């Protein structure tokens, strides 16, 4: 596009969403679950990926048995706490799940914390549970083998990048780029590195 690329790292999706609305950011280049709530404020690129969200939990051992109870069903999250990054798109899914099971799920949001940091905290026993995309979770389990990511929290969801609602030309350019890039040898090189 002939413009300078400036990258800002931000774990708070709420700040990213606001920065898109105000024009401070042009693109949120992250796998964002496409939801009706987000569509009120942003325009999404064509889907990049499909993924499900999973509960990340620590596998019981003799020393952790009394503290960590492995969940096998979503309803077992009733009256329990799940930690997520501040303003994470996962919050809405947990709120809906809480409604579906008709019991509260206590959502605890941590500032300045990435998904990988949250997963590491579960592995270390600092927090009990977090949520992660299934494909990311499968990679992180290789790094943290004491974790279980088998409990699905959501149905399969489209994931995409986000731009300002009125950035029609930028959206068109991004979709053109993504259409050409996804499936290319460069794409698969990056995909294999991270997934």
Report on this structure.
This protein has 195 residues and is of the alpha+beta class. Helices cover 36% and strands 25% of the residues. The protein has seven helices and nine strands, in the order αβαββββαβαβαββαα. Strands 1, 2, 3 and 9 form a four-stranded antiparallel β-sheet that branches. Strands 7-4-8 form a three-stranded antiparallel β-sheet. Strands 5-6 form a two-stranded parallel ribbon. Helix 3 links the parallel strand 5 (81-85) and strand 6 (106-110). The longest helix has 14 residues, at 168-181. It is globular, with a radius of gyration of 18 Å. It starts with 12 loop residues before the first helix and ends with a helix.
Provide a concise account of the structure shown:
The radius of gyration is 18 Å and the shape is globular. The protein is α+β, with helices and mostly antiparallel strands.
Strand content: 15-25%
Q: Which structural class matches the secondary elements?
A: alpha+beta
SS summary, helix count? 7
User: Got a strand count?
Assistant: 9
Report the biggest beta sheet as strand number plus sense, adding barrel if it closes: 4 strands, antiparallel
Query: For the terminal residues, how far apart are their CA atoms?
Result: 28 Å
Low-confidence stretches: none
Core attributes:
195 residues, alpha+beta, 3-stranded antiparallel sheet
Present the secondary structure layout.
Blueprint: H1 13-22, E1 27-33, H2 36-39, E2 42-44, E3 49-51, E4 53-58, E5 81-85, H3 90-101, E6 106-110, H4 115-124, E7 129-133, H5 134-143, E8 147-152, E9 157-164, H6 168-181, H7 185-194
Parallel strand pairs: 5-6
Antiparallel strand pairs: 1-9, 2-9, 3-9, 4-7, 4-8
